[in-house]
Amino acid sequence: MTRIHKTLALAALLAAAPAGANPFELFGFTPRGLGLGGAMVGLADDLAGSFYNPAGMLGHTKSEFGLGFAYTGSSLHVNRAKPICADPPTAGCSKAANADVESMPRFELGIIFPLGGLLKDRVVIGISGGHPVGSLIRVQTVDQSRPQFYMYQSKPQRFALNSGLGIKIIEGLSIGVGLEVIAQQIGSVKFEVDVASRRFVARDIKVDLNTVATPMAGILIEPTENLKIGFSFRKESQLYYAQPTDIDLGDIGKLTLDVAGIAQYWPHVISGGVSWRPAFLGGKVLFTTQLDYMIWKNAPRDQVQVVITPSGPVLKGLGLDTILGFGSADVPPGFANILIPRIGVEWAASSNVTVRAGAWARPAVTPDQGGVTNYLDNFTESLSAGATFKFIDPLKVFTDPVAFDIAAAVMIANERENKKSQAADVTGGASYGGALFTASAMLRYLY
User: Fold this and answer.
1) The domain spanning residue 294 has which CATH number?
2) Of the given ranges (45-59, 61-75, 188-202, 286-300), which has the lowest mean pLDDT?
3) Are 150 and 365 in contact (CB under 8 A)?
4) Domain tally, the chain
5) Could you tell me if 189 and 167 are in contact, meaning their C-beta atoms sit under 8 angstroms apart?
6) pLDDT-based confidence at 92, cuts 50/70/90?
7) Within its chain, how far is the Cα of 212 from the centroid?
């Protein structure tokens, strides 16, 4: 049966799932969004609008283009109560290593262009995108027994594309709709094996990568010139994948390996925000606040679901249908809904220099991991700062001033400890925490 087991392992390796959540959700989009702590729903009047709130893009009379780069590095740690052991593990040890968080470099792109004619000052279109360095999509589904930082394992490592449409209904009221393009992988694998001659008769593989549009919507109310109130809703992202595999063993029978699941889930996000430019400060200072509600309780199992189904009279006669026929059964993650408060402030120091700062706090979504799972998450605070510098292109390639945005943020994951309910648990408890650091820069041009 060794050859059959190797074949099953090969088929399982062919099952891969594209990532669903994007780095915009975790770290913010554009240096301005990062610098203001993501408090953009009541503002969103720049390139970030197509992601945060497309209704906020109204007011652009010129087209705008931006190209940037962002980098997130991790200094997270896991201190386990039991050591990591070699294979096979000795008594009291676990061979389940920690799932390390890698650095996350990515390019960012934003475009806004208002329509003209009868739709002038009433309709604006925006497109935003992010691309990880080195690959289009990074996929990593980690076994639930391995200690892993749920938010950062591979969620940021994927191509992200958002498009938005802002429409002014009446003066002081705008609405917006948008789409996030995600993917699904649906495939099939079929092997025919001649067991007597120990060779494959046929090896057929089919893989379809389909795109799926996930909607979002927003509204922006402007009671006065200096006050904006915004709301937005982003639908959950969940990427379904399936890779059924049929292994035809001829007269012996057939093995069907059903591999499916949902990878890289991100929940419904409901946001409300307010931005205010006090007239008594000359309109040079902007205050913005926001509250996000994330519905994590609907998060599905993060594991690959595998079911092996033997069939055929020989396999049944030998009792192998009972031995080989089984499926995975994973514990629901049991995540909690959370509220994330955000705040930001921006000051136009001069016509060419603007500085900003922001902060937010996020509760952990994971419950205490006292059972068989090891999904790690911490109460996390973030502090950020940034600036915009406008200058005339010395090469005269651009006739109007060019804007250069920079921002940096630190995310502090407060130390947390999990104690396993059973002292004999081979994985053992752990304390974990640390920090992540993000830096972002972008060149923008209005034309």
Assistant:
1) 2.40.160.60
2) 188-202
3) yes
4) 1
5) no
6) low
7) 15
Contact criterion met (CB below 8 Å) for 341 and 380: no
Q: What is the CA radius of gyration of the chain?
A: 26
Nearest C-alpha neighbor of 324 from the set 336, 311, 305: 311
Would you say 284 and 51 are in contact if contact means Cβ atoms under 8 Å apart? no
Q: What is this structure's pTM?
A: 0.84
* Paired tokens of 93: 């040890």
Pairing relationship of beta strands 173-194 and 237-242 according to DSSP bridges: parallel
Q: Which domain holds residue 237?
A: 2-446
Q: For the segment 283-331, what is each residue's pLDDT rounded down to a tens digit?
A: 899 999 999 999 999 888 777 778 888 888 877 877 777 777 777 777 7
Residue 360 to residues 27, 127, 288, 414, Cα–Cα distance (Å): 11, 26, 12, 14
For every residue of 188-254, DSSP letters joined together read: EEEEEEETTTTEEEEEEEEEEEEEEEEEEEEEEEEEETTEEEEEEEE--EEEEEE--EEEE-GGG-E
Alpha helices in 38-129 (DSSP H): 49-52
The residue among 211, 147, 190 whose CA lies nearest residue 433 is 147
Residue 122 tokens read as: 């009433």
Instruction: Write out the two tokens for 349.
Output: 């120091």
Q: Name beta bridge partners: 354.
A: 348, 388
Residue-wise over 355-386: b if at least 16 C-beta within 10 A, else e?
Answer: ebbbbbebebbbeebeeebbbbbbebebebbb
In what helix (H) or strand (E) does residue 320 lie, and over which residues does it extend? Answer: helix 320-324
Question: Which of 170-174, 186-190, 243-247 tops mean pLDDT?
Answer: 170-174
Rounded average pLDDT over 18-33: 76
Which range (14-18, 166-170, 186-190, 253-257) has the least confidence? 14-18
DSSP symbol at 99: B
Q: How far is Cα of residue 304 from the mean position of the Cα atoms in its chain?
A: 18
Q: Beta-carbon neighbour count of residue 388 at 10 Å? A: 23
